Amino acid sequence: MKTHRIAVIAGDGVGPEVVEQGLRVMRAAGERFGFAVAATEYPFGTAHWLETEEIFPDAAFEEVKTADAILLGAIGDPRAPIGLLERGIIGRLRWDLDLFVNLRPIKLLDARFCPLKGKGPEHVDMLVVRENTEDAYVQKPSFEAQGTENEVASQAMLYTRKGTERIVRYAFEAARTRRRKHLTLVDKANAVRAQDLYTRVFAEVAKEYPDVSTGHLYVDAACMRMLEAPESLDVIVTTNLFGDIITDLGAMLQGGMGVAASANLHPGQRGLFESVHGSFPQAAGKNVANPVATIAAVQMMLVWLKEAEAAAAVEAAIAQTLTRRMTSLAVGAHRTDEIGDMLLDELAAVPV
Ligand code: IPM
Ligand code: MN
After folding, report:
1. What distance in angstroms lies between residue 11's CA and the mean position of ligand 2's atoms?
2. Which of these CATH numbers, 3.40.640.10, 3.40.718.10, 3.90.1150.10, 3.20.20.70, describes 1-97+269-352?
3. pLDDT, tens digit (0-9, with 9 covering 90-100), for 218-241
4. What pLDDT does residue 35 have?
5. Tell me: the pLDDT tens digits for 279-328?
6. Ligand nearest 84 Cα, by number?
7. What value does the mean pLDDT take over residues 202-225?
């Protein structure tokens, strides 16, 4: 029997609770579809940092690198300085493992969960391909004359041709696998002229994909379009910071942060899977966070691990749970472990 070695960083806030449900579903899928899960849990996060001052020691980082996949709960806690652990754990994994693709599907499964009037599953089915290793995220901030009335703070937005080309190409390939085969570039090249690199690279790469139709939206107009006519969008490719912002908006279209999942990939080499939501520290330990986002991340992990049947079954179980069993996606409408139970029931009921 095949064993998948998973490095698990449950992290802060509700991370451990939602990861527990994700692993339950993963193990159940393994029992049903014939693979074993060897999960190694790492304690990193704010509590560990408060106790030991360790963020993510090199030895552990080297070990995590060798796993078949990484599952991350959430990082972020008001007891730590802003950004220290987010950048030291999530950021380090994304940047040092060169996980340049951040895939964020936005798929509405039930009209009840969409805040837009008159929109249903036939209108909301997008895939955001977010660049994950460049942009303002990886540039050093500068604070000149800090604390004085003349203070100047800056942090550059930086894009390389190689970094731009590989994400644009990945997005064209992804668009090719979809029914509509439509790819929209989202940028702000009219104001941030450095993003002219995206404009040019997108036009060049498009020539190699005559079967994919293309479009372009400035990020402000893209926000408007996502609300006004989400059905006009299929695959979106965008820069790191804009991708971060528009995928929270996208999460709301599919039912909120409780259901949105993401895959951070270096195709062919490494994958890290996580919810789009943060650590939700106010809800920690209360058994009220929705684990569906993490379970959907596990579903993406199964695709990555080439467990196609198991992935399809978990996808079906998520759809059944959301459409038939969950009365509401409001926090606390169902308990975290209760939703895990529903998922396991539905998984067992998926016909082979
Ligand atoms: C996300 C998160 C991170 C990001 C934070 C925690 C640094 O918001 O994965 O979307 O901005 O990328
Ligand atoms: Mn975000």
Report:
1. 16
2. 3.40.718.10
3. 999 999 999 999 999 999 999 999
4. 98
5. 999 999 999 999 999 999 999 999 999 999 999 999 999 999 999 999 99
6. 1
7. 98
Residue 352 has pLDDT above 90, yes or no: no
* 65 catalytic residue (yes or no): no
Give the separation between CA 194 and CA 197, rounded to whole angstroms: 6
φ, ψ at 306 (rounded to 5°): 65, 30
Residue-wise DSSP of 74-111: E---TTS-TTHHIIIIIIHHHHHTT--EEEEEEE---G
User: For the segment 80-114, what is each residue's pLDDT rounded down to a tens digit?
Assistant: 999 999 999 999 999 999 999 999 999 999 999 99
Atom of ligand 1 nearest to the CA of 75: 6
Q: Could you give the angle at the alpha carbon of 179 between the alpha carbons of 175 and 181, nearest 5°?
A: 35
Apex 257 CA angle, 251 and 262, nearest 5: 70
CATH fit for domain 101-259, picks 3.30.1330.40, 3.40.718.10, 3.30.479.30, 3.40.50.720: 3.40.718.10
Residue type, 273: F
Name the residue at shortest CA distance from atom 10 of ligand 1.
Answer: 244
Structural element, H or E, at residue 105 = strand 101-107
Which pTM value belongs to this model?
Answer: 0.98
Give me ligand 1 centre to Cα 299, in Å: 20
Name the catalytic one among 96, 196, 220, 345. 220
Selecting among 42, 137, 159, 170, the annotated active-site residue is 137
State the average pLDDT for the chain: 98
Residue 311 Cα to ligand 1 midpoint, Å, equals 25
| For ligand 1, atom 9: residue with the closest CA | 276
Q: How far is the CA of 245 from the centre of ligand 2 (A)?
A: 6
Looking at residue 83, the DSSP 8-state letter turns out to be: T
Q: Which atom of ligand 1 is nearest to the CA of 244?
A: 10
Pocket residues: Cβ below 6 A from ligand 1: 76, 86, 90, 244, 276
Return the percentage of the chain with pLDDT > 70, whole number.
Answer: 100
